[in-house]
Design goal:
Elements (H helix, E strand, L loop, with lengths): L9 E8 L5 E11 L4 E13 L6 E2 L12 E8 L1 H13 L1 H8 L2 H17 L7 H7 L10 H13 L1 H12 L7 E11 L19 E10 L4 E9 L8 H11 L5 E4 L6 H9 L3 E6 L4 H15 L12 E14 L12 E14 L1 H23 L7 H10 E5 L6 E5 L1 H8 L4 E6 L5 H10 L2 H12 L10 H31 L9 H15 L3 H8 L3 E7 L2 E6 L4 H10 L5
Parallel strand pairs: 6-9, 9-10
Antiparallel strand pairs: 1-2, 2-3, 3-4, 5-16, 6-7, 7-8, 10-15, 11-12, 12-15, 13-14, 16-17
Amino acid sequence: MAKPITGKTHVGERREKRPNGDIYVYERVTAYDEKTRKTYTVSQKLKGKIKAGTQKILPTRPKKHKGEGGLVDATRRHTGLTDILEWVGKVSGIDNDVCASFSEGDAAKILSIARYWIGSGGNTLPRLESWQVMHPLPYREAITEDVYGSLFKDIGRNEEGVQRYFSARAAHLGKSPMLAFDSTTISTYSENQSEARQGFNKDGDGLNTIKLLTLYSVKAGEPIAFSKQPGNIPDVISIENTLTQLKCLNLEKPLIVTDNGYYSQKNMMEFALRNVKFLTLVDPNIIWVRETIDTLRATIAGMASTCPFDPSICGATSLRMHQFSRTRQRSRNRKVAGEKETFSRRLYVHVYYSPDNEAKKELAFRKDLLELKAQIQGGETEFTPSAQKKIDKYLTCSKKGRGGQLKVGFNDKAITEAKRYFGYFALVSNQTMDTFTALENYRLREKIEELFAVQKGRLDGARPRTWYPDNLRGRQFTQFISLGYHCFLMKKIKEVQAKFGKNESGKTKSLIKLEKKLGNWLAQRSLAQILDWFDCIETTKVQTAMGSYRWSTESVARDRLFLKYLGMDTE
């Protein structure tokens, strides 16, 4: 009787000897075909091989599928720009100070957003999520609107972290730092920002504003601290809180430099009482300043008073014992609260004269008076307080007979007296200082104006772009970090430019030529354009079964020299 047909398959083994003596072992699946009455192979799989002279089966490498090629992982990112920013954060100490002041996650987000703002030229944050796909940042996850919105709120409420960062930056300044103090305004349509109020709008757009006060290290070239205030608070009353904040920063003998918006008797008295050194611009129309100008007029006319770095200006200094008075707040040392107290302090008044400014001031003065005269003759009756004051002082108005024609003339005596002080300006300080050192220090203060322009124009700081005050505080702090990156990198680029043309005796002709080429290139580009230039450098990483590989876009000799002089390791 024949064996019954079950239809089952049979698993067996087949060995095939190769010419080199190796034996390949296959697992073979067979089945019986009832029609042909023959056994056929269903499938065959290589199990391994037995090398010649051995008995052990060794597994073989699996067969590659079409298109696989052994590739495990591959990435391509724009790294030229982000490598520069990473170097800036490390060398400047900004990254370390942020990480020491905030939690690891918040610090990574802050640094990522700060780098995005400076790297993208101030693009708005909704574009960040797309930008970070091709740009490596400290925070590796996607920074969505919810992520940065929550971050700004947390930072705005974490005053301990913010003040710790300010103190950390101040600790880098050393002894007797010179700090410029100034403010700018941020315009907004928002009605949710409780600090947005009508006040002096520095952009002149008529909107409600929020005031941003900043302390800027003139010598270090970087911002140190900031605060915000309602837009209706005048500059002149902001000094007292600033002096209190200076104590928190634990600065040793700082010199505070301000413009005439912060000048007042009360502010000078606060500086004097707290023994804080200051240098401020004062209005030459103040009586005691005019008296000092008259005293120094002959000295300034001499050739010896010419400024060594700006021959268009002459100057001289006078020592003055200035009287201050205040009402006592507390009773102490037999002095009763509410009693008026008078004391004197030594002030140094630096007076300067510029013929160019005198000509400009006189021309503007003449145009102003002629315009006021024409308005009065045209029937205009309502003027601003400042315009009315000029009319009362420098113009004369009269009529011929009853109901006669209005006649407008000039008060030449008052005009001649006013013109005596055209071209003069004065700086006041309670610290001993050379006449032109004081002028140089005051001119360095103007760097803070450039700082505000960068924050508004290149770091998306012209509008709040947040709903609530706490979120705005956090957003401004992140912009403040980005501003630190900008200032440090600009300082380093200027140091690179200063190297050109020096020690040429030890340089080859090709290096001198390359330096000249680099100098011309840097002179023609802004920081945003320089960073954008290096953003084309890409780094590709490929990992295969055989190993890992990495390469970056090639760069020309000029770009390599720039990175070398900057201080980056280009190896």
